[in-house]
Amino acid sequence: DYYNSPAARAELMRGVYKRHFTLGGKALGRFVGARDADDETIERWLTYFYQCNECRRCAVFCPFGIDTAEVTIAARHILSRLGIVPKFMQGVAANLQKTGNNMGIGKAALLDCVEFIEDEMKEETGLEIRIPVDKPCSDILYVPSSADFFTNVDTMIGAAKTFHVLGANWTISSSALEAANFGLLFNLSIMRQHGERLRAAAEAVGARLVVYGECGHGWRAARMCTDGASRPAPFQLMHVLEYVSENLSRLPLSKLPLRVTLHDPCNYARAGGIVEQPRAILRACVEEFVEMSPNRQETFCCGGGSGLLMDEMMDIRLKLGQKKAEQVKAVGQLDYLAIPCSICKAQLPPVMKHYGMQTLEMGGVIDLVGKALNLGGNGA
After folding, report:
1. Maximum CA extent, the chain
2. Residue 94 · residue 88 · CB < 8 Å
3. Of these four, 96, 128, 134, 275, which has the most CB atoms within 10 Å of its CB?
């Protein structure tokens, strides 16, 4: 499709700019490629800017250095100001405004989830491993993805075990229980509001270090926009993969008998500075770590980035994920696909199933840390 090429998608924005902000566009209109922001143009914007993963791979190879993801972000923000937002995004934003997280988890439900996870860890290890909630005078505020209390529980368990072993003074916040920041993907004002919510949560517990969980675009928003979109933060920002990699020598890890490959989330590899850390962690946790190709900065998107996890877009999501499936198949027999991003964790299972890899085990990098830690107790 012509408008799904990076240059043509950028031209959708450029045409409107020419029409309203250049003399040639105002005078000559379509003769110089200018376009009115009419119904036809807006319909194209909605269609094609919501088929962009914002993965920035095109920016890596663009000879002019044009970052199409930034064009997409700007276009979606303009659409949202016109009141045009996909229903999926509206639901996420409503939950975030109401509860401080995308899943709509209230404090009572959170405490129930925490109790359940703590019981699971005690049954496994025989140890009292706590997940503190809103604990004052904490050194660290951990900001997980809210999905870590439902579909990605092993990620939360891995983080809790790690903090326990390191003797960290940490907590999570019931009012800011979300690393993801969907505002980056459709409305920059909502992105800033979530950033302010996290600032308030860190201030409330006294944290000087905020550690983000496994969420690609959430980390991108935090790393790139916390200061620039608002004001300098009164705390240090760190990703959980950075935190664990810096503390590997202090963690009693055994290598799991697994052959594992790593999916590089786009927002880590091309916008977040998280590239070598997960590799160091995996080499410490498993017997065999193998690379996909291409990897690191040249990685392919999972196909669900930029919030395309809408059910009505499943056909497009599966097509966009085909390159990733081909990469995984090319590696050969695997025991585990490491996916350190919440959106990628939601996207890749249906992609792998669709392309014939339904039995492949998948999960986060921090999941494996939790499984590889030697904690004593009940033989764990």
Report:
1. 78
2. no
3. 96
Q: Do the beta carbons of residue 186 and residue 77 sit within 8 Å? A: yes
pLDDT digits (tens, 9 = 90+) for 87-146: 888 899 899 888 988 889 999 999 999 999 999 999 999 999 999 999 999 999 999 999
Rounded Cα distance between 144 and 158, Å, is 11
Helix (H) or strand (E) holding 79: helix 68-81
Which pairs from 132-135 meet CB under 8 Å and 24+ separation? 132/170, 132/171, 132/172, 133/107, 133/171, 133/172, 133/173, 133/174, 134/171, 134/172, 134/173, 134/174, 134/175, 134/204, 134/205, 135/170, 135/171, 135/205
Closest to 280 (Cα-Cα) out of 293, 294, 262: 262
The model carries a pTM of: 0.90
Instruction: Evaluate whether 364 touches 342 at the Cβ level (below 8 Å).
Output: no
- Cα torsion through 38, 44, 47, 49, rounded to 10: -100
Which tens digit of pLDDT belongs to each residue from 265-284?
A: 999 999 889 999 999 999 99
CA distance 314 to 334: 25
Choose among 140, 344, 129, 172: nearest CA to 244.
Answer: 140
- For residues 151 and 149, give the distance between their C-alpha atoms in angstroms, rounded to a whole number: 7
